[in-house]
Amino acid sequence: MxxxxxxxxxxxxxxxxxxxxxxxxxADFTRVETALHEHCFVVFPRQTLSxxxxxxFSRLWGWPEPHVIDTYHHPQEPNILVLSNVSRDGKPIxxxxxxxxxxxDYSYLEVPARCTILFAIQxxxxxxxxxxxxxxxxxxxxxxxxxxxxxxxxxxxxxGNRDDTDEASRTVASLLSDSQKQKVSWVRHRLVRPHPRTGxxxxxxxxxxxxxxxxxxxxxxxxxxxxxxxxSTHERYRYVHHYQVGDVIVWDNAQLxxxxxxxxxxxxxxxxxxxxxxxxx
Length: 281
Ligand SMILES: [Fe+2]
Prior knowledge:
single chain, alpha+beta, Double-stranded beta-helix, three-stranded antiparallel sheet, 17 strands, globular, binds fe (ii) ion
């Protein structure tokens, strides 16, 4: 039976006593799912998984969807995106800089990501953690007047990093080829978004893919989005998870913003990633 132990007051819980390479009993999965909704992300330490076992675990959460960047899919399992700063024969073996700014996964799609699941294969000695910011807590703390003013606003999203569109920068969104660009278009999401499963409201993707607000001129919309993201990524809402080899982490994209580290290219870091979509509304 799984043991759930909170990692901080802000976000995160460690779950031990589970071997993810084996099928999970329904009652155990329900507990794990409840822990995810309560703590925003969960970590299972010391796991050993083959690529098919990792995919089988992800299917407990819903439907995995391969990333639009298909250059670094795992050779046997296209649902796995390889994130790595390692090069072999002069070629990168994975995607190097994936989302080094605050964002939430697949917010540029009509049906966004329910959760993102990473399996730590190689862990850098320094600066290798993912920074999370709790958007449920950040919404709760807003003054009532602000909550009422922003509830109901609809935000326009597109693939990319609103605050850095310089293609030469390492904090731009990972670049798409022309054919990949044709697969993404504009979508709309509520700024204050009720959680698809629990109904609890959070600020949604106020950093990252949000470029405008319906019925508002762009300058005014960007000022509001930037004001909200400055609030919601403040230190008091942040927690950094530093990986150990064998960690499997699952995070709730409806409740968190996250930012990947800018890695040192001489300090190897390799993770497998699967992104599971929300159920279609
Ligand atoms: Fe991400």
